[in-house]
# Entry
Amino acid sequence: MLEPDPDAEPVLAAEDAVDLFPPAKGCPFHRRCPRHIGDICDNETPPWQPTEFGHGIRCHIPMGELRDMQYQSATSH
# Structure
């Protein structure tokens, strides 16, 4: 079994990086969102949308469309 090297420095992959300072305008995820839909994401704060179990998200895409996209993505693989 491989053991981690205690002297090795951790390496952060680019896809794991998070913006420490999100953009001042627009959606904070617009630079890395797979569903980025254009200027609206870059320039306008997305509206709050409630989801199941008391949770919620901020997105310009309506919840119904997001669910359909998620379903299509899951069934296409």
Observations:
- The chain has a mean pLDDT of 84.
